[in-house]
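Read as amino acids, tokens; as here:

___
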Amino acid sequence: MNKRKVGADKESLAATFLEKQGVAILERNYRSRSGEIDLIGREGEYLVFFEVKYRNNADMGHPEEAVGYAKQRQICRVADYYRCVRQLSPRTAVRYDVIAIEGEQMRWVKNAFPHHSR
């Protein structure tokens, strides 16, 4: 199975998990020139930008550890673009979460990182 197919399958699994937790999924694989955000959802007052990371096992580290500073900045740039295009208020409450899938286990890391300004 190729990596792109595995990634798409894990993102679908994450979206289903989040919907069961009460998150309304607004976008999947949202792209801009700056990059991509795997899932965008609404949980209560928060607009949540999700990065989904999968690892078969922890041999190469835990999945959430793969969301480094450069990836965080990229996600924030795309999130800023999304909010601008959707004409959302700058006061819109946002959060950056990671869905870490390791083997068959899934972890939802809320507030995984802060917003990084330009």
Q: What stands out?
A: The chain has a mean pLDDT of 92. The two ends are 37 Å apart (CA to CA).
